[in-house]
């Protein structure tokens, strides 16, 4: 039997198995294997971050905090040009920023798991953020 004259039932089976393998191979596995929920017209990095946002919304309604901001951006390094090369700006993007009425201070909050809390890039960015902005903000990791 030649490959170009397969019975219809075998041809369908082969095509089905090949397409299934392609779908599995093309499925992107997330770095930390976390779920990315969708709520409040946005995609969240984790369920933990979404739950914290909902807690903060309750705090806004109760008047404990105000000026809630999601994904605030803080400049860490400005553009650098040297020897014909341009290095782009670098930012620290926190999960939340808000004003806490009881502490009378702005708070920057990042929701992290134990794994991401110990990641070298995150630790470096946190260190730079604290050096540049530590006096003006209370920094929390939850």
Q: What is this entry, summarized?
A:
The protein is of the alpha+beta class and 142 residues long. It contains four helices and ten strands.
Protein architecture, described:
There is one protein chain. The termini are far apart. The strands form 4 sheets. The protein has a 4-stranded mixed β-sheet, with helices on one face. The chain contains 4 helices and 10 strands. It is 37% helix and 29% strand.
Record keyword descriptors for this entry.
142 residues; two-stranded antiparallel ribbon; four-stranded mixed beta sheet; Trna Endonuclease, Chain: A, domain 1; alpha+beta; flat
Q: What is the CATH architecture annotation?
A: 3-Layer(aba) Sandwich
Strand content: 25-35%
CATH domain fold name:
Trna Endonuclease, Chain: A, domain 1
SSE order, one letter for each helix or strand: HEEHEEEEEEEHHE
């Amino acid at each position: 039997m030649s490959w170009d004259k397969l019975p219809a039932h075998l041809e369908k089976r082969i095509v089905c198995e090949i397409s299934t393998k392609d779908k599995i191979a093309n499925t992107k596995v997330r770095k930390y294997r976390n779920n990315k929920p969708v709520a409040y017209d946005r995609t969240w990095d984790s369920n933990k971050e979404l739950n914290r946002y909902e807690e903060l919304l309750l705090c806004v309604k109760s008047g404990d905090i105000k000026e809630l901001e999601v994904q605030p951006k803080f400049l860490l390094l400005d553009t650098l040009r040297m020897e014909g090369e341009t290095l782009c700006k670098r930012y620290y993007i926190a999960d939340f920023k808000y004003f806490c009425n009881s502490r009378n201070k702005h708070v920057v909050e990042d929701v992290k798991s134990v794994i991401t809390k110990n990641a070298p890039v995150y630790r470096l960015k946190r260190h730079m953020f604290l050096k540049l902005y530590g006096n003006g903000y209370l920094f929390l990791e939850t």
